[in-house]
Design goal:
heterodimer; A: about 270 residues; mainly alpha; B: about 230 residues; 9 helices; ATP-binding (chain B); ABC_Transporter_VariousFunc (chain B); ATP binding (chain B); P-loop_NTPase (chain B); ABC-2 type transport system ATP-binding protein (chain B)
């Protein structure tokens, strides 16, 4: 059932994302070509300006669309009239949330890829690429010679974890806000906004409390690169990861509990 | 065999407002039952409880001996009094959707009914009138081989000419093991198909009786009797 939910959710969202992605990808060579022509007569100089503007706007759209559509889809299908259909399917509320989350992550990551490909396509030349590779290999060499290599490996793994977890956190915050919103207010949109602020305030308070011990540890860190790095790798990042996992479980649990016990469709 | 639907001391409160209070009710298989009551009497609350969209405040509700959940949703086919369909979908997309999620969905039956009511499966819902959408919803719901059909105001927005076809559809699509629960204000229209009626008022059940008994004992139609009981 989870697979079927994901399939239908992908279908329902692809009709927004694919055209947007296509626009950004198609505009890339057009913009580059327009700029490559260079000398425009005075009267035609508006052309590159307009095209660059449209191109940048399309990238901004791609970057912001995923989060906006993640919120919109969840709201529409879970707590408005469409909820009557979704919540009476023979599917657990865990599957509903997981399917929405999976599809949200797929679109978030693909938007990053589209933006990356587009920017790469915009600025790529062999010279620039080899310059970039030079700089990166120098940075890599510098790190390798100054920093303990096992710390380095751990650092990379932890950063990957943080990025992956980061993809899930934002949608889960919005899901919980929407779930809380329909419980606390007749006006579900207003309620969701209040729910969002409640979650923000609570998580701020908790992270401030948790940052106190981090501050104490941080005071004992010396200035050497290895000591700094080991503070991050052995303490700060693991705490961040644990905190993220903990937050996500709580947010998932709140949404799931509300859908099971406190659903309030009109 | 467990009864199809069983409510024991079932109560539902929203904050301080009591929507249902101490309901005891048993529905057997193979009946068409009218759930009749004025606005705000608790009909929709009971229906939402049956479908697991609400959780009881007290007491219990069992379908085939199980509390509402994933298992009961497989065998309950529910028509809400809302348009719950995605506007961007085509009718045939919806049929595929139902086929994917409900193992008891009979696609052929759905296509037959669409044809009878002159609805094109390739039309998208946003081009349809409210009444046509309601027909599509009813077709989806009645094309399932469910144990319990719960229809909340199934004919309210449909023209009288189609009402007869829809009622016929309802009668001809349920079998001896399934029961249809219809909530409606339009008693006169459905009266002839009902086996049993439940009168509900202020969150309590006033009467559960067979239609024949009402006609025999009271000497009047259910519609006339309803008007008498609920006279303002």
């Amino acid at each position: 059932m989870l697979g079927k939910l994901i399939k239908h959710e992908l279908k329902a969202t692809a009709r927004y994302f694919l055209p947007l992605f296509l626009i950004a990808i198609v505009l890339t060579p057009i913009t580059r070509f327009t700029l490559w022509i260079g000398n425009y007569p005075k009267i035609l100089q508006f052309i590159p300006t307009v095209i660059v503007f449209v191109y940048v706007a399309s990238l901004i759209m791609v970057a912001s669309a995923s989060i906006l559509l993640i919120i919109y889809r969840f709201y529409k299908s879970m707590v408005t009239d469409e909820g009557y259909l979704m919540h009476t399917l023979p599917v657990s509320s865990e599957s509903h949330i997981l399917s929405k989350l999976a599809v949200a992550s797929i679109w978030t990551v693909s938007s990053w890829l589209v933006i990356f490909i587009s920017i790469f396509g915009m600025f790529f030349t062999p010279d620039r690429l080899s310059l970039l590779i030079d700089k990166l290999s120098y940075a890599w060499f510098y790190f390798n010679t100054t920093v303990n290599s096992s710390l380095m490996a751990l650092l990379i793994i932890e950063i990957i974890f943080i990025v992956i977890l980061g993809v899930f956190t934002a949608p889960l915050i919005y899901y919980a806000s929407i779930a809380i919103g329909q419980v606390i207010s007749k006006n579900k949109i207003l309620g969701s906004i209040i729910g969002f602020f409640i979650i923000q305030v609570v998580s701020q308070i908790i992270s401030v409390i948790l940052m106190v011990p981090v501050g104490f540890y941080g005071d004992r860190v010396s200035d050497s690169a290895n000591s700094m790095l080991s503070f991050f790798v052995n303490f700060f990042f693991p705490v961040t990861i644990l905190l993220a996992v903990f937050t996500q479980i709580i947010l998932f649990g709140i949404t799931d509990y509300i859908f099971k016990k406190k659903l309030n469709l009109e | 065999m467990n009864p199809l639907l069983e409510c024991n001391a079932l109560s539902k409160r929203y904050g301080n407002v009591t929507a249902l209070s101490d309901i005891n009710l048993t529905l057997e298989r193979g009946k068409i039952v009218g759930l009749l009551g004025p606005n705000g009497s608790g009909k929709t609350t009971l229906i939402k409880l049956i479908n697991g969209l609400l959780v009881p405040s007290k007491g219990q509700l069992l379908i085939n001996g199980t509390a509402p959940g994933t298992e009961t949703k497989k065998v309950v086919s529910y028509l809400p009094d809302k348009t719950y369909l995605n506007n961007w979908m085509k009718v045939k997309d919806l049929l595929n959707f139902f086929e994917d999620f409900y193992y008891n969905f009979d696609k052929k039956r759905a296509y037959d009914m669409l044809e009878k009511l002159h609805i094109n499966p390739n039309d998208s819902l946003k081009t349809m009138s409210k009444g046509t959408k309601e027909k599509v919803q009813l077709i989806l719901v009645m094309s399932r081989n469910a144990d319990l059909y719960v229809l909340d105001e199934p004919i309210g927005g449909v023209d009288p000419a189609s009402r007869d076809y829809i009622l016929d559809t309802i009668i001809s699509n349920y079998n001896e093991n399934s029961t249809v629960l219809i909530s409606t204000h339009l008693i006169a229209d459905v009266e002839n198909v009902l086996d049993e009626v439940i009168f509900i008022q202020n969150g309590r059940i006033n009467l559960q009786s067979s239609v024949d008994d009402i006609r025999m004992k009271e000497g009047k139609s259910v519609d006339a009797y309803f008007r008498e009981v609920y006279k303002c």
